[in-house]
Write a structure and sequence with these properties.
The complex is a heterotrimer of chains A (327), B (345) and C (317). Chain A is mainly α and 327 residues long. Chain A contains 13 helices and no strands. The longest helix of chain A has 27 residues. In chain A, 61% of the residues are buried. Chain B has 11 helices and 14 strands. Chain C is mainly alpha-helical and 317 residues long. Chain C has one domain: ABC transporter involved in vitamin B12 uptake, BtuC. Helices cover 77% and strands 1% of the residues of chain C. Chain C is globular and about 55 Å long. Classes of the chains: A mainly alpha (327), B alpha/beta (345), C mainly alpha (317). At the A-C interface, α5, α11 and α13 of A face α5, α11 and α13 of C.
Chain lengths: 327, 345, 317
Amino acid sequence: MSTTDLAPTPRARFEIAPQLGLAIIVGLLVVVFAWKQPGFVSSFNLFGMGRSLAVDVTVGFSQMAVLATGGMNLAVGSIGVCSVMFAGYLMQDLGLPVPLAFLLAVMLGGLLGWLNGFTIVRSGVNAFIVTLASANLYSGAMLILTKAQPINVLPPIVSSIGSYEILGYASPALVVALVIGLALYVFYRYSVPGKETLMAGANARAASMSGIAVSRSIILAHVLSGVLAGVAGLMVVARVGAAMPAVGGEDWLLPSFLAPVLGGTALAGGFVSVVGTFLGAMLVTVIRSGLLFVNISNFWLQLFLGLFLLAAVLAQRYRGLFRMRLT
Amino acid sequence: MKPHFGRMSGIAVVMGLMLTGGAAIASDNHIVVAPGGPHPYFAVWEQAAADAQKDFGIASVKYRVPSDWKLELQTELMESLASQGVNGLGIFPGDPVGVNSTIAELKTRGIPVVTLGGCAQDPTDAVFCFATDPYKTTYTMTKALIAAIGGKGNIVHITGQIIDTNTKLREDAVQKAIDETNGAVKLLQTVADTDLDPTVADQKISALFAASKDQIDGIIATAHNSSAVTAKQLRSLGDKRIKFIGFDDDQAVLDDIKDGFAFGTYLQNAYGQAYLGAYALDLLASKTCTMKADAPWDKSPQTVHFIDSGVLKVTADNLATAKDEMKKMATGIQSKFKATYLNCK
Amino acid sequence: MIGFRKFASQEWAGLAAIFVLGSALAAFLSPSFLTEYNIYVMLRSASVELLVAFSQMIVLAIGQMNLAVGALGGLVAVLFGAMLQLLGLPLPLAILIALLIGIVGGFINGLLTTRTGINGFIITLATGSAFTGINLGLTESRPFHGIPVEFVALGDSRWSFVPALLWPPLIVAPLLAIFLYRTKSGRKLLAVGGNMRAAELSGISANAMIIVAHAISGGLAGLAAVLAVSQLGAAQPEIGSTWLLISFAGPIIGGTALAGGYVSILGAMLAVLVIALIENMLVLMKVDPYWVRFALGGLVLVTVGVNRWRAHQMGRN
């Protein structure tokens, strides 16, 4: 490439192997919890875990899409709740059929994401500040329009999607999350816009010198992030059978970063791990759910959550070091 | 199946139940009461759960707290408890609408759920709600405040998180009480989102005083932390002119009442909510009792299966005796509960 | 070099102008704004936030993030309360130990980050959860009320419109500036943030600097917590629960680089003050609660937009 003498070559790395450690740790934790408390792997608990996991994974993907460009999206939760309330409004007040309402709600997510991306690119202000402001604007607009009142007379099909059990233990939401994961994998690995997004994230200047429209990549990443936030919101709508203003918001902020970063996605941009994000979310879900089964006195739960997380991360780290020493 | 006379804790509540024929029966039920997250209001639930287990001879009554105020964590806890063989659940709903799908799922698994301290929004599968009615209580509080300021003047409403659907109910209740004064009382301002981080509450409430301290005649606070921070602020100002009616029993509020910085507060029946909740759940889970279809339900904007757990107005006059009065009220409700609401074998 | 300095100074100049113009507008819109008491109230609320912003800024300086700022603050606050109420320690000793706990908490963050080589983001997220866990485990979410009266009175005292609580951040700010720009360690710290590999090649121990930054961050979070207890008159377990966003918003709106290596202390202070001004105005103007969020977002956007526009204009001239 002709740009090598100007800057480091933008490397669009995409790997699977480092995530093996995470998978092993998740697997071990499941075994330990199941051994201590068989109820942990009961079909009901697996179903419940899968349903939570689906939301966490999708929220993680939503953040990952923007992390790929080296930016951040603090408005993931706000976009999510806007899609939630919009879907509720379309179904209850306008009586639109469920699929159409869901489609439009996801499109709203994409639109709000586009607004973020457009503002960032046009103003040159960094993504952190723009999405911090827009998070308040989106949530604020939602509060003004809904007066924070839930919409809870939705077509019954919505909640039956949420409680439908595939083969007794899998939630449709989990299947959706898996399909999204597969699509994202293909997108970042094989598609031109996906690879360009990663290059733009790795080194914007070098990317733009090699003819990549960096601005377009950033906007695309935010649209994708918005769409995924919308999908995550709709998973919650199906889950609770209602559209509530308390979904998302700041509650999604840390989880959205946790899954991708645990999974190895770089905060600096240019590298994403779809599989890692999935496993990262899985790690958190398994620890959280498992701790509910072992007898830890109430208020200390949060402490153990932190310690388990730390231990898991350390274990993953030192597995890597160990392997390096062997080779 | 003999009454557990030996394990009587001496609490008057139980005496009431015994007298009305509600003999405590040993059961092998596992009951859990769970708030929506960590909050000082629920601290007494732990003791209430332990007492209920002992007094009614229930195999176990546990108090479990989600690690944070997120609906997802509460529903995960509920699902997990169901997988662990719990057969009766009393919850303070993290969200009045959001808990319903989980309640419905537990019902299909034969686990009765009651809501305690706050209600789930109808349509719901919760068996009943035993709580303080936010609308009615706020209305009563506002009426009391209006009386305290002599029927005319300006009042301010300091309330909890705007995202909490109960906040809207409280706002409506304040407005209704004010409307009934035909313009004699004006709502100067509503300050919301003051229940989460006390630093945020402090910022908003101090700015409020800076702006319109001299125009305010009365303040009503309708959330726990909002009330605590307002109490602290009034003490700092050294203001005894403004009449303040608070909510719950934070030490700062009680001290203010004693020293004249606050007019009064409204206490909820927190202990009784968990205690009676566990008692009812035990009977329902054992299938010894079912709810009466024609029970004399109270009215609540959220559910038709509402039982008022009662509030106690505390002012300087009854500050010393408030604890006993509260206990007496709990006894009163509980002694009649079985006969009023249940059909038992 | 002079051109760079000029640019930097303009960066905070923009925020200063916004603060002055905003205040003028506020005074015009609400007669209560320019009262001595209101200025005091606004500055008092900003005091804790200033320290919180500094606490994050020093970690941003090395190109990392500290997601445990609020959790550590909450833990220090309740331990401080416990020392006063349960152990009956004398106030100065309790304050000293509280600050030490903060520093140790930060030190642990730094140590874990450097020893494991794991991203500070993940480490502080996990330790934050652990800190909150200890907080909840100890308090079961009940506040400590046994705070000495004179300490609470200190939190309410003022000289004209200057609250006593403002002094700690006002003293910390120049100390930080001297540390970062006038001492060898400070310059090393910024160098590590600017380009870790280059710094290490020139013989700087990046790990030591990372640990120092985290320890300072912890100490400042602890100081903020002590101030918050004085301000609230009680050691509330919820202290710190909403610090996360302001901790980033202050420094970053103020011009501190997320990537590390550059901080603007004055910028962070002005950004916190502008936000305090906005929040104060939302109450003074009796904004409908349902509109507060929207207005806050809009005004932050306007602030950033104006600041950016100014910088752009300066650049063009």
